[in-house]
Known about the structure:
Elements: H1 2-6, H2 19-32, H3 37-40, H4 76-79, E1 108-113, E2 119-122, H5 123-129, E3 133-140, E4 145-155, H6 156-163, E5 171-176, E6 199-203, H7 204-208, E7 213-218, E8 221-222, E9 232-234, E10 247-253, H8 260-264, E11 288-291, E12 297-299, H9 307-310
Parallel strand pairs: 1-10, 4-11
Antiparallel strand pairs: 1-2, 3-4, 4-7, 5-6, 5-10, 7-8, 7-9, 11-12
Molybdenum atom (MO) is lined by residues 84, 141-143, 240-241.
Amino acid sequence: MANIVRRPDWYIPESQVTPEAVFRNRRRFIRELGLGAAGISLLPQISPAAETAPPPKGYPFKRNAAFNPGWKLTDQQVAESYNNFYEFSLDKEQVRLLTGKFTTSPWPIEIKGLCENPMTIDAEELVTQMPMEERVYRFRCVEAWSMIVPWSGFPLSKLIEKAKPKPEAKFIRFETANRPEQFPGMTSPRTARYPWPYFEGLRMDEAMHPLTLLATGFYGKPMPKQNGAPIRLVVPWKYGYKSIKSVVKIEFVAAQPKTFWETLGPDEYPFESNVNPKVPHPRWSQATERVVDTGDRIRTQLYNGYADQVAKLYPGA
Length: 317
Ligand SMILES: Nc1nc2c(c(=O)[nH]1)N[C@H]1C(S)=C(S)[C@@H](COP(=O)(O)O)O[C@H]1N2
Ligand SMILES: [Mo]
């Protein structure tokens, strides 16, 4: 890290971004806005008073020992300040500073489409009804960085079982909240043309897989807004963009749904998007990944290390 400190302030190669660099960048960002100590308080920041997240009911949940409880977790502050959430900003380090207007309670979730038991249920209620647990998963972004995160949540399959999908339901479509007044990225010049609201999809067997979670928190507390409060998907063997944040709609459908990123770039972000070191992104290799907090570069594993559990879903691959 010493070598990074000696570099000019503006020079931070992607491969060497470290926690220190991340925080140094934020200070630079605040300076560039021309905000002094007084100005900083004008930024929508996370403060206990400003938090609109529901009170932590039941957190922390019991860690499930079957899912790598001993792995070294990613530094929590890095996981909370290096975020892809384009509804707020394209700039990972700005996302959390722009969440001030985003309200996450109440949070009705609509479950509809080809099922016997459509329903609307609040995210807070799910936390009290579902078998909540904590699981440590690897998380791999298509941009070739990775983290190890302790998610709080429940298997999506448990909610699907309540909804009772019909046999025709072969896929599930998910949608994020559509709130241009709370999501500045939805109307900013560079992203206003994107096909909002953010939407994603899974095959039914992928959605039913025991690894697929709906997460309402991480690091033993409710989900921070920038990480997808109050409820998000986590599909650990697929690239991060499949793990849609701040979900308000879950719909059972017969045909493979379009996705947000597939619509923007079908060759770069196909529907399936399983982590695979041998299939490069058209513009970069996927053979290795940068561990976000240490800056280490490690080899990427097939299905992000979950091949034993999920390879059977992809017999032709
Ligand atoms: N609604 C929504 N969900 C989203 C995104 C987004 O921009 N909007 N970004 C995705 C991408 S590219 C990644 S890598 C992860 C990042 O999750 P994290 O900030 O908790 O690490 O969220 C995914 N889910
Ligand atoms: Mo990502």
